Here is the input.
Amino acid sequence: MTHIICFDLEGPLSPQDNAYEVMSLVENGDKIFEVISKYDDMLALENREGYEAGDTLALIVPFLVLHDISEEDITRVSKKAKIVDGAKYLISKLKSEGWKAYIISTSYEQHAYNIGGGLGVPKENIACTRLSLSDLRDEIDDLSVIEKAEKDVLKLHEHLERPERIVHPLDKFFFEELPETGYGNVLEKVYVIGGAKKVAAVHRIAEANDASLSDIMVVGDSITDYKMLKDVKENGGVAVVFNGNEYAIPHASIGLASLDIRFLHLLTKHFDRRDLMFEMVKSWETKRSDFEKDPTSIPEDAITPELRRFLLESRIEMPYFGYLDDADEKKMSKIIEIHKRFRALVRGAAAKLG
Here is the structure.
């Protein structure tokens, strides 16, 4: 049987939100990104026709052009990005056990290829957002329109807690004023791998490997991943949310909240026996406090010798596994709160983004 695992990049493999950090090269760029990211959430949740979660990466491009940000800048920012603890161990371990590892990322290619390369995932196994700022720069006749819009976006930052107030002014800029600069439809300029396009990428990977979705495990954490998680789960695969947010968690089968992603190996080792996988997750749910007091008490079918040794030597906080298929509202709320804490610890400022 072919074993395939598809990771989202930002969150499960690297804590950095690269686009957020790139925008932060610009004065007040972090605030601009936060407003547009909230706008992205609003459009995605209302299922706006032609819009997908993650299209933030298309929406910020005019502002990158305005400030002469280059592909080299994106690469330079990416070089500073960390790798999530345990990610190198996990991917190396999976490869040694015959798994094929892929990355499906909304990230710009400059970031995705950099992180993927550091983890040993070849470019041909990475689906990500292609970006050529030098080509797009030539398509805008009037930068003053974007300059004015930037000032207006900054004023909207105070309304982040009432995001409905930002939708109309941003609709007007992106879909009425910006096209008049010669730029055209902002969503057609950059093909962002988010939302449904992540689902399409999973299907392409399955087809290329003559596999079905039931042969696939996907790992995500945010609003750009929920359609991918939902689709794989509904088609017999395993959908895992790692330090996820409230948009992603309800659509997964299993939640893993941890400072170190190597514990995901406990799921992959039982991949061929889903009944054992789910029983192992439930065991961690009910007995985690006992395991925390004495890691030597963890049954052999719920740990590996390497991971037990890692727990004993590192004294890292125990991971939280959660079985989500039967989660009622109370359980779901508790799991979301646990993931929120770990998400903040691992991702820092990027944790607040959708």
About this structure: The longest helix spans residues 274-293. Residues 16-84+105-189 form a domain with the AF1437-like domain fold fold (CATH 1.10.3870.10).
